[in-house]
Amino acid sequence: xxxxxxxxxxxxxxxxxxxxxxxxxxxxxxxxxxxxxxxxxxxxxxxxxxxxxxxxxxxxxxxxxxxxxxxxxxxxxxxxxxxxxxxxxxxxxxxxxxxxxxxxxxxxxxxxxxxxxxxxxxxxxxxxxxxxxxxxxxxxxxxxxxxxxxxxxxxxxxxxxxxxxxxxxxxxxxxxxxxxxxxxxxxxxxxxxxxxxxxxxxxxxxxxxxxxxxxxxxxxxxxxxxxxxxxxxxxxxxxxxxxxxxxxxxxxxxxxxxxxxxxxxxxxxxxxxxxxxxxxxxxxxxxxxxxxxxxxxxxxxxxxxxxxxxxxxxxxxxxxxxxxxxxxxxxxxxxxxxxxxxxxxxxxxxxxxxxxxxxxxxxxxxxxxxxxxxxxxxxxxxxxxxxxxxxxxxxxxxxxxxxxxxxxxxxxxxxxxxxxxxxxxxxxxxxxxxxx
Length: 436
Hints:
- By secondary structure, the protein is an alpha+beta fold.
- Helices cover 19% and strands 17% of the residues.
- It has nine helices and nine strands.
- Strands 1, 2, 3, 4, 5, 6, 7, 8 and 9 form a nine-stranded antiparallel β-sheet that branches.
- Helix 1 (22-34) packs parallel to helix 2 and helix 2 (97-114) packs antiparallel against helix 3.
- The protein starts with 21 loop residues before the first helix and ends with a helix.
- Residues 7-48 and 51-60 have low confidence and may be disordered.
């Protein structure tokens, strides 16, 4: 399968440095469409950029395949979860709306190319004027698309700029303070988020690096997060993964195949808010540091009681297999619930929240160690939903109030973003309907 390449060396660059002409913009888009042939016959949807992003073949697809970029919903939400993440939150520094629109146009064209295994720009890492910086950083040369998806979201603070206050969706409300929060403002929030998921960490890092490079002078990085080892499955064909505490995570997650449930719990519908969000979803992020060393000294029986699940197969303590429904009414010989009242599975279960569900898409992280030799590690929690006020907030309030797991974790970062629907074709761009 072909790796990413730029155009032929020696071609001249169009426009001035730091600017993107209309001709170059649509050249980027057209070149992205042309990338269909470059990713090979084995690519999803015959390697095209188009197609419904929700119809990506489920399960563990070959790592080199390309995921369609265009469709009614953004890829990277119900797309079968890849193994690697590079997430970045950015603050908009330009005060000119036209510059933000231009940036979003250029980002979209670059994203369309990179998700199909191409360089970020038309001239690539090796073409164009040798006396000017290349329009791709080059560290992904020769690498395939690796299932790369790029997903954008807009934070509440963006709507205080450019006269957008009346376009802020009601569901994009600031998250309330939760009991036990230890949030660090510098790694929370953000005007815009970009999520890159891929099977190859270098491909994910390359994508974010180039989008940030393109945004120089118009946006600045607020914080970023690398993740590995997905902590949930978003397709029934995927095995349920484990978190860094060793337990299977996200057993009751929404899945790609749950069309009706996705319509009810995930996608924003007409009448929910402004029309520009119809078909989109809301993302909540929480960086949850785990007290790894303390957890590792806890007895197995205590660990299982905290989660309410068997550590081996992932079954609820009242069942034998992972997907057995937990029986919260069952009591043991001592008259106490077999699944404790303060267990994680009980407090987070849909039956406790009126059937409410979310689509979890989090990742493990290890950010080295602190000055005392303890691992700085945990879960970068990510959850997509139709309305955080009715889904994430009540679930997290219950967990914050009673979850026995709280002894071993600390929430240090938080964010909420409105992720618009997908794009129709190369003539469309991120944020068009919001900023029109």
